[in-house]
Amino acid sequence: MDTLLKKNLRISDSRSIRKISESQNHRISGSQNLRISESQNLRVSESQKLIISESQFLRISESQNLRISGSQNLRISETHNLRISVSQNLRVSESQDLRISESQDLRISGSQDLKISESPKLRFSESQNFRISESQNPGSQNLRSPESQNIRISET
Predict the structure, then answer these.
(1) Cα–Cα distances in angstroms (integers) from residue 128 to residues 7, 15, 54, 84, in the given order
(2) 128 within 8 A of 153, measured Cβ to Cβ
(3) Is residue 55 domain-resident?
(4) Structural domain that includes position 46
(5) 100: Cα separation from own chain's centroid
(6) Residue 145 forms part of a structural domain
(7) Contact between residue 68 and residue 91 where contact means Cβ atoms under 8 Å apart
(8) 37 occurs within a structural domain
(9) Does 147 fall in a domain?
(10) Do residues 40 and 13 lie in contact, with contact meaning Cβ atoms separated by under 8 Å?
(11) Interval 51-100: pLDDT, tens
């Protein structure tokens, strides 16, 4: 390894960092923390960009999987927090864009799954908060926006 980098790269036995191709950009600016706990897999396929701007935290707790398939962009703007608690799965399928604009919080509580199928776009505009809470109604969940609209997602 290049001794001029003055950085430490530590990979434990239970973790794998696989396949960062030539067309990948891995940029973590100042005051950033990228923490991956034990038994974690970070897989970035071809033509992917993982860009984390200033004062951002990407935290993945134990038994978490962050998978980004081909031609995906995960962009987190300034002063944003993406927090995924234990036993959560964030899966973004092909040709998906997950964009979080300014002053947004995306919070997923315990044992929740956020799954996005092919070719849709999930966009959060400025100064809106979307929260997925638990035990609102038996068998259903409420997604509330500041415009006082309710979208119920029932369990399958």
Answers:
(1) 38, 36, 21, 19
(2) no
(3) yes
(4) 18-128
(5) 10
(6) no
(7) no
(8) yes
(9) no
(10) no
(11) 444 444 444 444 444 544 444 445 444 434 444 443 344 444 444 444 54
- The tokens for 120 are 């849709």
Length of the chain: 156
pLDDT recorded at residue 14? 37
DSSP-derived secondary structure for the chain? --GGG-------TT-EEE---TT-EEEE-TT-EEEE-TT-EEEE-TT-EEEE-TT-EEEE-TT-EEEE-TT-EEEE-TT-EEEE-TT-EEEE-TT-EEEE-TT-EEEE-TT-EEEE-SS-EEEE-TT--EEE-SSSBTTEEEEEETTTEEEEEE--
For residues 95 and 44, what is the distance between their CA atoms, to the nearest angstrom? 14
Mean pLDDT (the chain) is 44
Q: How many domains does the structure of the chain reveal?
A: 1
Tell the residue number behind the tokens 């604009």, with chain if given: 101
Q: Once rounded to an integer, what is the mean pLDDT over residues 2-26?
A: 41
